[in-house]
Design a protein that fits this description.
The complex is a heterodimer of chains A (about 325) and B (about 850). Chain A is of the alpha+beta class and about 325 residues long. In chain A, about 45% of the residues lie in helices and about 20% in strands. Chain A is rod-shaped, with a radius of gyration of 43 Å. The model of chain B has no long low-confidence stretch (mean pLDDT about 95). Classes of the chains: A alpha+beta (about 325), B alpha+beta (about 850).
């Protein structure tokens, strides 16, 4: 039996020494295949006595079991190693930039406009729109700006050729006039969009810019309502610790009229006020012209420059950057 | 309007620091734009008389001047470059060690300290200063020459308040009264609840003036004074300073005094040389078209009906309220002056001034309305000053008043409902509070029992209605005392379904990798045509530039220019999208296209009109995209993948699908190959909706790219969103129903059709769908092949079909049947199934 012990020792050593799955398979064939010593010993059992046969049978089974166990263990080891080395070869550098086409960014003005609209939508306003090349009657007449009113000249209006009285709207207030002439109070709308002035392009002027105007008309609307609304807006846009300040001003379509400043606290104790919008109580002439009874209804209106808010909040130093479509600028926000 | 502080304090009691005053003014409707201190820092400057001068021995353009020394005694030698003075003139001498504020110093900063300096061998003890060097105006053509009676050896700051602060305010369109020192002083008195006073004026002389006839409704008062013994000279230093502080140039004492009084009282005046006024007599009348008048600036002006004009006995002598005539101008030779102060109808003056493009200090005041009660005082004030300063004798005066006074010069009484004021302001201001505040403004306040009868003062043209009085009350009480209250609105907020879809269209474009751009919507003549090309333009009557003379007919041009700028920055790739309006004339083909698309859609009113239903330019909403170069990731670029026309097709197709009525094949976007100027002839297609062109996609023609200095492959696309958005019902489209998820397994079949190149994929797909019939669940295009065995000019297109039946499992026989049907349908369009 020492032959078998020697064989077993040799076989198990060979199993342990196998360094690949292929080699292991060759070891299996060499020690347990049809031409192996094991097969010879098995074949020779016929010539043995029943007792010897039983004893050898047991010995051979023990050999087989031992071999199989060693084989299985080694097989699992080698398989795990093979997988490990394949995975090692598949290593990726995940600090490489992500390989995808990123979505484009909405324009800064779009983002600020939508944020402003959301504030007012949350308060109960709907969004109204109108044409950019606008009838003078909506842009001026219905808003208490008669043809000879000095405000018409001061607004640096751009006129459209070939029409009696069509202008590039100087504000989005004509949208308010359109709403008031077609719907009964209560009216609560915000009107976003492009507006135009005959201003030459420089760092602080643009012939095209955008506004969000708001209008609330109902019974018993007060100046306190206006102030409360604008305070809530300023805090939503600039921070909960902000305050607003109203200063007397003049707009043909509101009376009383106000310019509205928002407080700021800069570094080094530098604080003060920044003008952000114009507002006021809707002039009774405007209500009347738009078919709303000024004795029964009152309202407030406000107009906010989107560029101004965007530039203040995002440190944009030159208004031209908003319209040059430089991808470095567009992708930043 | 510039307000010298020393002048203001002559007319109103101000007892607060400048900073507080400025801040109070800004919070009370006198918006301060700037505070300057012209002349501040001037030191060591004294008056001196010129005793002698001679040419500099070594420089032709210089003079060596001897002037009186300190205290008016002795002599000092100064080198001077000016020649506008003579022996005996009084000048401003800046001594060595003195400081001159209005020059740029050696360090580039403001002002310079003098020292004795040798100029070409002659030592100059300081300098003789020009008005600009002293910041007493812009004049730098010569040195400052003062009136003869100026005391000698006096320090400049003993003569005038050197560095007197000047507060500049923005004047509101409705506050013409703020265009004068007196007007601001009155308003400050109202704001501070203190007192103001008008300057003292002499009584009108009883002698006659010249006869004046008022023949127009456009003049409510016409005051004249006759001044004799006139000797026109220069103005004293204090007057020159006031004019300089106000931004006006001193001319001579007559003109300077009329300007000073205009600034002080807000009433423009005119001085005629009475000996040039024929008659002498005047008629104030409406102009007749075709008349001519040469104004003070030397321009010949053509008058039209609607202008106001002043005639003497023979001819027009003044364009009323705007500018006087040249023929009757006051000159050094003038011996007799006719001073005139009139009150003109604002609208007329505004029209004339606008028509002539002639905006004068006078017209600016008349067109905002002057105080109808102020003209008499102003003419007397000017006469008084000329008596003091130029020794004239006032010999006669006259006043013509329109009777009855025209409406526009009247201050009507306004009835104010005090409860309504409390309601509007949400504040508890008693009747007495309100009456008191209005009285501070100079209004007469009567009535009671909740109704105040308020007669505003003659200078407050802006107070005509209860709303105006409400503003005046809260302005004086303090805007900052209005409480804040967030109102609970009785309305529900939100976006309409169409507004939501518009936002989603933007998001889809962004998701495809395009950044949103906003470009200025103006174009010149050279612009690449986009959807439905037409020569029609919405042109601007007063464009800012020739290359911005029209509104964009398409969004593509603006994006191409933006692509060009990014390309010029050396960016390897760029993709931009813009959502906005394009502009076309009312009858443009594009307008007809949109009408046709929306013809059967109820309430899809996409055109805007004026209030009377009149047409205005059409301005549909459009989505446009443009891209060029490589696709860029974040910190990564795909060197093998450039933006292609497929990307443009993809994004516009996706947007159109998303916005169209769901499951409605009638609204599917169709693509048809086309050829257009500026576009690649084989890579351009129009997008059709309901048979109408609503978009274009394409690659630029290489020549077009080259001309624009762009890389060869630039792709663009444009889709008019307006019909899709206008078709959205008020309540949005009905909700989409869930699909039936068939449980039986699906069968997949690949088919390949061979056809001539000219047969579009869309045609092939239509045939396959038709052939596959109701078993077709989904269809994908997956391959395109050209090769010898197909023959020249033919291609094979492969599609994978997923077949499924709701009620049973499909068999091979079903698949065979579908293939046979596809083959038959393909044959109908001249295509063969590739077995």
């Amino acid at each position: 039996m020492s032959d078998l012990e020697a064989l077993q020792h040799e076989a198990l050593t060979a199993v342990d020494a196998a360094d690949s799955l292929d080699e292991l398979d060759r070891v299996r064939v060499r020690f347990t295949g049809k031409r192996s010593q094991l097969a010879v010993l098995q074949k020779g059992m016929r010539e043995l006595s029943p007792e010897e046969r039983r004893a050898r049978g047991q010995a051979l089974n023990a050999f087989r079991d031992a071999f199989q166990a060693a084989y299985d263990t080694r097989y699992q080891q080698l398989q795990a190693e093979a997988l490990r080395s394949r995975l090692e070869a598949e290593r990726l550098d995940l600090t490489l930039p992500p390989r995808r086409l990123p979505p484009g960014r909405p324009h800064l003005l779009t983002q600020v406009e939508q944020e402003m609209l959301e504030v007012f939508i949350g308060m109960g306003y709907r969004v109204a729109e109108g044409p950019e090349a606008e009838a003078g009657s909506y842009n001026f007449d219905l808003l208490n700006i008669e043809p000879d009113h000095p405000a018409r000249q001061e607004m640096d209006t751009i006129y459209v050729d070939g029409f009696d009285d069509v202008v590039l709207r100087t504000h989005t207030s004509p949208v308010q006039a359109r709403v008031m002439t077609t719907s009964p109070p209560p009216i609560a709308v915000v009107c976003p969009g492009w507006t135009f002035r005959a201003d030459a392009v420089d760092a602080t002027h643009s012939p095209v810019f955008s506004q969000v105007e708001g209008l609330y008309v109902d019974e018993q609307v007060t100046m306190a309502d206006l102030r409360g609304t604008l305070l809530a807006f300023a805090r939503a846009m600039f921070g909960h610790d902000r305050d607003i300040r109203l200063r007397p001003s003049f707009f043909p379509f509101t009376e009383p009229s106000a310019e509205v400043d928002v407080s700021f606290h800069g570094p080094g104790g530098n604080h003060g006020w920044l003008e952000i919008l114009g507002a006021g109580m809707v002039d009774p002439n405007v209500l009347d012209a738009c078919g709303i009874d000024p004795e029964r209804y009152s309202g407030f209106a406000f107009g906010i420059g989107i560029e101004r808010v965007a530039m203040l909040r995002h440190d944009v130093g030159d208004i031209r950057e908003l319209f040059e479509a430089d991808a470095r600028f567009l992708a930043r926000f | 309007m510039k307000l010298p502080l020393s002048w203001l304090t002559e007319l109103v009691d101000l007892d607060l620091p400048l900073d507080d005053l400025v801040s109070l003014m800004s919070l009370s409707g006198l918006e301060v734009e700037d505070v300057t201190t012209p002349g501040a820092g001037a030191a060591g400057i004294r008056t001196a008389r010129v005793l002698h001068f001679e040419p500099h021995p070594d420089a032709d353009s210089l003079r060596v001047v001897r002037v009186t020394g300190e205290g008016g005694d002795g002599e000092v030698e100064v080198v001077c470059g000016a020649s506008n003075f003579d022996v005996g003139d009084v000048v401003a001498h800046a001594l060595p060690g003195g400081h001159v504020p209005g020059v740029t110093g050696p360090d580039g900063g403001r002002g310079m300290t003098l020292e004795a300096r040798t100029i070409r061998g002659v030592t100059s003890q300081g300098m003789l200063a020009s008005p600009r060097e002293l910041e007493l105006g812009d004049d730098h053509a010569g040195i400052l020459v003062l009136a003869d009676d100026t005391p000698l050896g006096a320090s400049l700051d003993d003569l005038i308040p050197v560095g007197d602060p000047v507060i500049e305010i923005a004047v509101q369109a409705d506050r013409g009264d703020h265009l004068s020192i007196l007007g601001v002083a009155r308003d400050l008195a109202a704001i501070l609840d203190t007192t103001w006073r008008a300057p003292e004026v002499p009584a009108a002389p009883s002698g006659p003036s010249l006869p004046v006839t008022l023949e127009t409704d456009g003049c409510s008062a016409f005051h004249t004074w006759v001044l004799e013994d006139v000797a026109i000279g220069g103005s004293p230093l204090w007057l020159r300073q006031r004019l300089a502080q106000s931004g006006m140039r001193p001319i001579d004492v007559a003109v300077d005094v009329t300007n000073l009084v205009m600034l002080e009282l807000g009433q423009p005046l005119h001085a005629f040389d009475l000996d040039q006024v024929r008659g002498p007599a005047m008629t104030v009348r409406d102009a007749v078209g075709g008349e001519q008048l040469t104004t003070l600036d030397g321009q010949k002006r053509e008058l039209v009906t609607g202008d106001l004009v002043i005639d003497d006995a023979e001819r027009p002598v003044s364009l009323a309220g705007v500018m006087g005539g040249l023929d009757t101008e006051v000159s050094p030779a003038t011996a007799r002056i006719l001073l005139e102060a009139a009150v003109w109808e604002p609208t007329t003056i505004r029209r004339t001034s606008r028509r002539l493009g002639l905006s004068s200090e006078a017209s600016q005041r008349f067109e905002r309305g002057v105080d109808p009660q102020g003209a008499a005082r102003a003419v007397a004030r000017a006469a008084g000053l000329l008596t003091d300063l130029a020794g004239v004798t006032a010999t006669g005066s006259g006043a013509q008043l329109a009777d009855p006074q025209p409406d526009w010069a009247q201050r009507p009484t306004v009835t104010l409902d005090t409860a309504r004021v409390r309601r509007t302001l949400a504040m508890d201001l008693t009747d007495d509070d309100q009456a008191g505040l209005l009285a501070r403004s100079g209004a007469q306040v009567g009535g009671g029992d909740g109704r105040l009868e308020v007669t505003p003062p003659s200078w407050r043209r802006d107070l005509t209605r209860p709303a105006d009085l409400t503003e005046e009350i809260i302005r004086l009480y303090g805007y900052d005392r209005v409480p804040d209250r967030l109102p609970a609105l009785p309305t529900t907020g939100g976006l309409t379904p169409a507004q939501r879809l518009e936002r989603e269209a933007r998001q889809l474009a962004l998701a495809a990798g395009f950044h949103e751009a906003k470009t200025r919507p103006f174009v010149g003549d050279d612009a690449l045509a986009g959807v439905v090309p037409s020569p029609g333009r919405v042109r601007l009557a007063n464009p800012l530039a020739q290359d911005a003379a029209a509104m964009r007919p398409s969004l593509i041009e603006g994006l191409l220019q933006a692509v060009r700028r990014n390309h010029g920055q050396g960016r390897p790739g760029v993709a931009l999208a813009e959502l906005g309006r394009c502009f076309r004339p009312v009858e443009d083909p594009l307008a007809q296209v949109l009408d046709a698309v929306l013809a059967d859609v109820p309430d899809a009113d996409w055109r805007w009109t004026d209030p009377d239903g009149g047409a205005i330019p059409v301005q549909p909403r459009v989505l446009a995209v443009a891209a060029a170069g490589l696709k860029l990731g974040e910190g990564w670029l795909e060197v093998d993948e450039s933006w292609s026309v497929h990307d443009v097709v993809d994004v516009l197709d996706r947007v159109a699908r998303h916005l169209a009525p769901p499951d409605d094949p009638d609204w599917a976007l169709e693509r048809v190959a086309t050829e257009r100027d500026g576009y690649h002839p084989g890579r351009t297609a129009v997008l059709r909706l309901r048979g109408q062109e609503v978009g274009i996609v394409g690659q630029l023609h290489p020549d077009e790219s080259d001309r624009r200095d762009l890389p060869e492959t630039v792709v663009v696309g444009e889709l008019v969103l307006e019909p899709l958005l206008s078709a959205v019902p008020e309540d949005g489209y009905p909700p989409v129903s869930a699909p039936t998820l068939v449980k039986h397994p699906a069968v997949t079949v690949d088919v390949a059709l061979v056809a001539d190149e000219g047969v579009a994929y869309a045609t092939l797909e239509r045939a396959v769908r038709e052939g596959a019939g109701h078993l077709l669940d989904e269809l994908w295009w997956f391959d395109e092949y050209r090769g010898e065995q197909l023959g020249e000019g033919r291609r094979s297109v492969a599609m994978r079909l997923r077949l499924q039946a709701a009620d049973r499992q499909l068999t091979d026989a079903d698949a065979e049947a579908v293939i046979d049907q596809v083959e038959a349908a393909a044959a109908d369009i001249g295509a063969a199934l590739r077995r």
